[in-house]
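#struct-queue
[09:14] JT: dropping the first one here, sequence first, then the structure tokens:
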Amino acid sequence: MSNTRYSELGGFLRSRRERIRPEEVGIAPGPRRRVPGLRRDEVAVLAGASVEYYTELERGAGSQPSDQMLAALARALRLSRDERDHLYRLANRPIPHRSGTASHVHPAMLDLLTRIDGTPAMVCTDLHTVLVQNSLAIAMLGDLSAHHGSAASFIYRWFTDPAARQTYPQEDLAPQSRSFVADLRAAVGRRSPGDAEATELVDELLRRSPEFQALWADQDVEVRRDERKRIVHPTVGLLDLNCLSLFSEDGRQRLLWFTPRAGTDTAEKLALLTVVGTQAMQTGPVR
């Protein structure tokens, strides 16, 4: 990248940082703030970067940021789609696909995710690629946004990697498989005919998974809106949950949140999980 481009990138990041009020991203403003908007260290924490690295970016120095870092910065700074695209151009990176791991998440959906407290929640695409999770969702499920390529889709991992099913009770596996496939068919139908991303995913699953092939041939279609989900967590045990969805206007993204089922001890276990945090949970296969 040229020095001019680095300088423009740093200036743009600084301008976006200064316009955000701390409370908009779940940060207590405090009585003694000397800068408008967010501090550099707060943006770094929100984006999962070091303070030194982010500071270098704002100063127009350092190395070219990766696609993953740009996506994280766009979410931390609540950029609109046009602003996100501009950020990628300044960094001399291609604009990401609409449903990849670097997909733009609407600021309003991110804001809602930030405000959901005390229950696991996350945003994923219609092809079941997780884009962002709150801290309790990471504690419960592991960091599901860490996968890349075909494996970024949980449906792909479900049918190609046995580890993806380890935290589900055995009797729930077949219903989950049918539900995933019916939901995927609905997603493919909503997209433009011949959509490259959806076609590639389906073709790869048909090639690699006889189970998927048989279920796909059944032609079942059903959007996953709400359902019961049971998850065996390695620390707190069985969690019996309601899984609810809020969809974007085009149906390509959904906000998922999990609530304890009435008459179970799951509420107490989720409260314990907030204390346990992410320390006892490695990057996990669950969703």
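[09:21] JT: and here's the second one, same format:
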Amino acid sequence: MSKPFFRLLTELSSRKWVSQLTGAFARSKASRMFISRFARTYGIRIEDAEKHVKEYRSLNDFFTRRLKPGLRPIHEDLTRVVSPVDAMITGIGDIKEGLIVNVKGQDYTIEELLNRSPRTVNYKNGFYFVLYLSPTDYHRIHSPITGDILEKEHVLGKVYPVNEFGLRHMKRVLSRNERLITFIQHEAGEVAVVKVGALNVSSIQYVKPLPKTLERGQELAYFEFGSTVVLLFEDDMFEPRADLMLGSKVKMGEDLGRFLDKK
């Protein structure tokens, strides 16, 4: 089949109501019977889950599981930014005049990613990560820094897949999909945590209650099925760990890089 045909199928299936139906089933008691099969299919380590697999009420309950305490230690150096998720790095680099260049062959503007927020100006020459969560991964999202939540926004949109095919062959998926955007203020600068919905992600949820001040590694939100987090650092704030590159895998709490000293 041709790429245009696959693109058409993806367009037809990427309506929010399709993901809502999928999500409704995943939250139902009937979906419990698929938990073990789902875990086997995706190689999920059920022994890492906070509860025994039989204690989960639905597939969604299992998918949004917490992990046993201590499995995701937070990097001890307070000058370091930590990964908010378990993920693969599918985009990394400098933001150049408000442009993120060549994420799977496509360019994105900070303005469109942040839904034309006035805060866009802070990130015109900053740094970015695109972090892709596969179905195998732990799907809770944590704060990469300690700081105060300045603002948050829910942007309605599509639910295109954010896997290799979606990012490469669908038009600007990261800025067209549904997003939850959280701006967090650290003493070193501002960070935008952009949580991007995807095909079969019935919702992106903040934890409740959501505190006004977050500690590094504290729970912020979670995905119901796989998706992507885009991290944006404002200008002259951040330097990445030297060995991180496209395709690198990171765990929540792992060191991503350091805050730059203010001159």
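[09:30] RK: nice, looked through the second one.
[09:31] RK: The chain has seven helices and 16 strands.
[09:31] JT: good to know. Confidence is low (pLDDT under 50) at residues 5-14.
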